[in-house]
Amino acid sequence: METRQITDEERDALKEYTVEGPVNPRPGRGDYRVTPALVSTVFGDGRKLMRFEPMECNDEYYLVLVDSEIEFDECGRAEEESIYAAFWGDMFVAIEEDFGNDTDPDNWDQEDAPCEHYRKHGECSYCEDYKQCEDTAWPALNMGGRGFECRLEAQMTEDGTWRPNEYTKARIKCMTAKI
To answer: Is 173 within a domain?
Structure first.
């Protein structure tokens, strides 16, 4: 699949999807803070905005512009075969190029490691819960032995505007009310 870099116009058009802030799209569950990270590599025609989210992590996720041919089911989940075949490995490379990789200590220099333990001792203790480690910084890619979920966040309409899915629409509405 062809790739290119995101344009300033595309970044501007996607601003409402990249806002950090508190959100409560489901009453009774409490607020949480979302932290999206827009990947600068565009895959294919870039007419769909895909949310690439580490499992069990509603608050930190990558946003990737993907080809309009990528298929999503009626719940907005990506059809895995279409992603794996098209650009799965390239997407990880793009995220690492943009944000780094804090998963693999072999990639770390002792002085610049995201983990304080590694900086002090030259080895990684592999924290039990990476979310508790204040030294590993989002949005550096952290596989942490977890899977990922891919969802349709929005798609470009024929007139060039972005149309969010229903969940995204509710989240944006909640966020703008709190900001």
So the answer is: no
φ, ψ for residue 176, nearest 5 deg: -65, -25
- Distances in whole angstroms, Cα of residue 111 to Cα of each of 14, 107, 114: 36, 12, 9
| CA 4/CA 49 separation, integer angstroms | 15
Domain count, the chain: 2
In a domain, 176, yes or no: no
Both tokens of 13, joined, read 């058009």
Q: Could you tell me if 63 and 111 lie in one domain?
A: no
Q: Residue-wise over 98-112: b if at least 16 C-beta within 10 A, else e? A: bbbbbbebeebeeee
pLDDT digits (tens, 9 = 90+) for 55-113: 656 678 899 999 998 888 777 777 777 776 678 788 888 988 898 776 555 555 556 55
The answer to whether residue 179 is domain-embedded is: no
Boundaries of domain holding 57: 3-101+141-168
- Is residue 36 located within the same domain as residue 75? yes
> 149: which strand partners?
53
